User: What shape does this take?
Amino acid sequence: MPFLSRPCGARIYYETKGHRVTGIPVLLLAPGGMRSSITKWEMSPYNPWKELNTADNNAGDSIDHRNDSRGAHFYLIGMDQRFANRSTATLQNGDGWHTFLQDQLAILDELNIQKCHLLGSCIGPSYAFRLMKCSPERFGRCVMLQPIGLTKHTTEQGESWEGLNKDASWRWVGDWADEMVRTRKCQDPNLLRALHDEMFLQHDFVFSVTRQDVAKLSHPMLVFMGNDIFHPSETSREIARIAPNAELVQLWRDEGREKLQKAKEKIERFLSTNLQQNNGS
Assistant: This one.
């Protein structure tokens, strides 16, 4: 099993799928909040490990160039974020979005990936925004599935809240923090609360960057709207309004098999642009 050892002592688990030479590289940033890990894709309405077309790692350099949505082959890179599942790390004072960012870039460096596309769900888009802000030249296109954010209630079915959903982040981070203490992975609740405050109270909107940051990003983005208190629809709409090269898909995950299938095909077509071509980033 591949682990990357970090200077701080963390060990980050990662996997790859597809052909390293011929596949279009895509870094997958999994859902699950602070439990973001490869296995969380199995519970997602869209699972890129299953859906994106990859050549077998041992299949040689041949590639199918058919002009349909399954014509491209991808080289997928997935990881368990630090503290999640098979990755291990000691929580330190001052950890935050930048800590995860350095892990993610280190995985790409380890694999000698100079440029790749991004696909993230839930917390994944927030990781992606930080990556595109800090290393814009390393990333091409970005798919965002139901991004998290701080905003007002709009059209979420069966859910309502007054004002901003400001307590939502601690509701799911708090469960994770309790688990960290219970399993003795961190015995200082103050450190866990500080991590939450650093990651989710410094910026509103998508937490990891500001609206001004997003407005400066020219990367092509495909945003699939969320619909609950943790992944508010208005966050997706606002990303699409602010980012200069973003497209919003409102109906996809709960609209039946046909809509979901169209969403899968749209994602694959969107990511099929070769990184050496002019793709607007």
Q: What stands out?
A: The domain at 3-271 is CATH 3.40.50.1820 (Rossmann fold). The chain has a mean pLDDT of 91. The chain is about 30% helix and 15% strand.
